[in-house]
Design brief:
Number of helices: 5
Low-confidence stretches: none
Strand content: 5-15%
Structural class: alpha+beta
Helix content: 25-40%
Number of strands: 4
Shape: extended
Order of helices and strands: EEHHEEHHH
Distance between the termini: 80 Å
Length: 123
């Protein structure tokens, strides 16, 4: 069996954490070291990359995970179509919420409104 790799905690350099537990450790250590956490920033390409705020821009420019995230963005671009003002003259009428009711709900609410007659023996 191959020994597991360790990572050094950015909040406390005395902490050596197995990679499999690193994310969990970062979250707990961030809570336990709020003063240090205020001086640190999280990389937008990998949440396990925690660097001093002053070095964040430099880190993100050379981050090893940067290319994979940018490739995903270009492969599956988010397509959003917004209604134009020309299509709808009254912008306040664009969304009309409706109450969604399940078939079972209507039966139950009907029972609540008109309770059934209780039948007793001999009636």
């Amino acid at each position: 069996m191959e020994p597991e790799a360790f990572e050094i905690c950015p909040y406390d350099p005395h902490h050596r954490i197995p990679l499999s537990r690193f994310q969990y450790h970062l979250a707990s250590c961030r809570r336990k070291n709020p003063k240090k956490a205020k001086k640190m920033a999280i990389c937008k390409y990998n949440a396990c990359h925690v660097v001093p705020i002053k070095k964040l821009e430099e880190h993100e420019a050379v981050c090893v995970n940067r290319s994979s995230v940018e490739e995903e963005d270009t492969e599956n671009p988010l397509k959003v179509s917004l209604p134009s003002s020309e299509q709808n003259d009254d912008p306040q009428q664009t969304f009309v919420p409706q109450k969604l009711v399940c078939e079972n709900d209507t039966k139950e609410s009907a029972r609540e409104i008109s309770p059934q007659k209780i039948l007793r023996p001999g009636q």
